[in-house]
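Record format v2
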Amino acid sequence: MFKKISHIGIAVKNIEQAIETFSKLSEIKDYHIETVEEQKVRVATFKVGESRIELLEPTSADSPVAKFIEKRGEGIHHIAFEVENIEEEIEKAKQKNFQLIDSTPRYGANNCLIAFIHPKSFNGVLVELTQELKK
Ligand code: CMX
């Protein structure tokens, strides 16, 4: 079962500019940036209460986020739900015939294991399952 909304990922062309805009709008000044090589993105994370906003800038032309921006423009890219045990949730989603993009978890931003479910499986919304790793 999903525990909470972990974060919303937003595809942006220019992360510095998006950070400035989101800081101005939210009045949240704290954030951190990291690069997730495997996903070919630079991620700026803002903590907003119990959840986060992740601004995603592609690091190469073949990044999934670059393709998304090319096809659909900037905007909401995915919703991530926190789960207790990602492998169990992947198995359950498979058994319920959801189309898994990742059938084994990968490493994502913010010290998490992640796995994506195809937007065709859920009304055009790309879903990320995420399990926080203990620090
Ligand atoms: N949300 C909603 N729809 C999306 C989408 C998204 N994020 N990305 C693509 N689509 C749509 C496409 O527009 C396309 O729609 P149409 O069929 O109507 O044209 C459809 O999904 C299928 O696209 P596709 O050609 O099969 O596949 P793409 O090459 O566009 O890849 C996807 C789509 C979701 C499989 C790919 O982006 C993927 O594997 N994503 C998971 C990894 C990822 O997104 N990583 C970046 C974030 C990492 C992080 O947060 O750490």
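Residues 9, 36, 39, 41, 56, 64-65, 67-68, 71-72, 77-78, 101, 108-109, 116, 118-119, 124, 126 surround carboxymethyldethia coenzyme *A (CB under 6 Å).
Residues 45 and 54 are 5 Å apart (CA to CA).
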